[in-house]
């Protein structure tokens, strides 16, 4: 494992995404000087520059990139160099027009923006390898280059899944490897239903463009295949970088609220997990309530960034992660794009530090006055005058210098998340808007409102040291989780639909929760999804959206006024029969927290905590001043106990 300069034990670094190709060369040295003055030590470049690196097929123009890297190096900046495979140039697309991805309606995703490639196209895969090799041969050992980024945001703009003929051919090969003979596939998928049996693998098409829904087992296989194609595409680049750039970290930048491929699988091949944090864009674009969208319009919902920090830290056993792109001001891509409250850029930066980030890199240095993102802020305005984000980056750099290394994030609560859980709930939702990802987010948010420290972990992760394990919604439960839970003495909360499907998308013969019945001796006899307003009312909570009807030997714990059971327990295990979110989830997780003897806090609206080492970080996401409750102790190192809007308070001891 590479653990060079970026590894933990050093204080978090700050960096910026920079596009020297957007600016006159005469400006580069001044830019680099100003970056260093702002407290930045890393600069991420190159990820969209293919047409400038190779303007004609096979003709490379390295001069400008050599000089850009040299300029940044002279200023003392460490460079993170991206492979440019998210933006194949026009000449390449014209040479192999069938390399573009095909959408679910069968339409090609044409040239003129970015990510216009199909992960399964062998010709494009070879081109991606070729340009990566060319870059790695030239810069692999360059002393200024401390890390590499593969491609950019796999799957952005809905591109991880392609319905091309290349994908269909590769899917058939994948099916042969998984099922060996077509009779096995037919039996596994239940294809005798609706006469869907195949006589050979060559008869299997992709699951789009069917009259009504395709077989969910077919979809799940295709989702797994599509994810594996992303993994293989990434791995091809990683292998080249490993061979040619020894001692440098390899990173990829993931996105927010995105599950189109298995991020745990991609993370296994890289050194450090990056992710791109746009709290205001995500609040506006995703399914937050109108009240939250307004209350947090300039701050972002208090759990958006934290949820992803903890999710991506959990993707690697060594927990190495970065914010590869940090929102510095208004973005351009959501339906509404407000400016952050003054102080939020600093707050977001320090929240990443509290969750163990090694680097926060702002997107971007200077707002480019042309093309698609001309209304997207940078740390500088297009006229090179400082935008508000620059002073906040500088302020965060000063805070980091005062605090030094953050210390290890605390190990208290493990929340289990798997990507195929979200695929299964998307393929067969059974009710509108019921997604495993959002079940995880809502459980996370509930516990964060209690001031708990949460790790989001994959199913194979050791549960040693945790007091509470929460499984919000895990339809397919892998054996490694069953084994881990069997030896776990802490409290467990299992959410609805968990253990309700086999690996091949069938109801298990013993009924849900299937392989979890060793822990929780119940059978889910039938399930219901509930339309808005159809609720069961309990004392201070309601059953909404979903109900697992249960028989067996567990004890009813949460009982609605009409006798409907919302939650069960057996020993140290609880089962939540309703959809996560709202007061019922708060009540169930609150009970489990108390039984786990975890310290919790009654936090005012919008206040959040995170412990790292001996420090407690407190963040005020609300638009008014809030006071830290007396239950939060320690000597104030930064800020004050009365936190202004966007305020941060760091305590020790
Ligand atoms: C990210 C992307 C960047 C830039 C940014 C704008 O998704 O990686 O290249 O487009 O969004 O917010």
Shape: globular
Task: Give the CATH architecture of the domain at 413-595.
Answer: 3-Layer(aba) Sandwich
Oligomer: single chain
> Distance between termini?
33 Å
Bound molecules: beta-D-galactopyranose
Structural class: alpha/beta
Low-confidence stretches: 1-7
Strand order of the largest sheet: 1-2-3-4-5-6-7-8
Instruction: Bin the helical content.
Output: 25-40%
**Name of the top-level CATH class of the domain at 413-595:** Alpha Beta
Give me the CATH fold name of the domain at 413-595: Rossmann fold
At the fourth level of CATH, the homologous superfamily of the domain at 413-595 is Class I glutamine amidotransferase (GATase) domain
- Summed over residues and divided by their number, the pLDDT gives a mean of 97
What is the radius of gyration computed over CA atoms, rounded to a whole number of angstroms? 25 Å
Number of helices: 18
* Main sheet: strands, sense, barrel: 8 strands, parallel, barrel
Strand content: 15-25%
Number of strands: 25
List keywords for this structure.
seven-stranded mixed sheet, binds beta-D-galactopyranose, eight-stranded parallel β-barrel, 653 residues, Immunoglobulin-like, Rossmann fold, alpha/beta, single chain, 25 strands
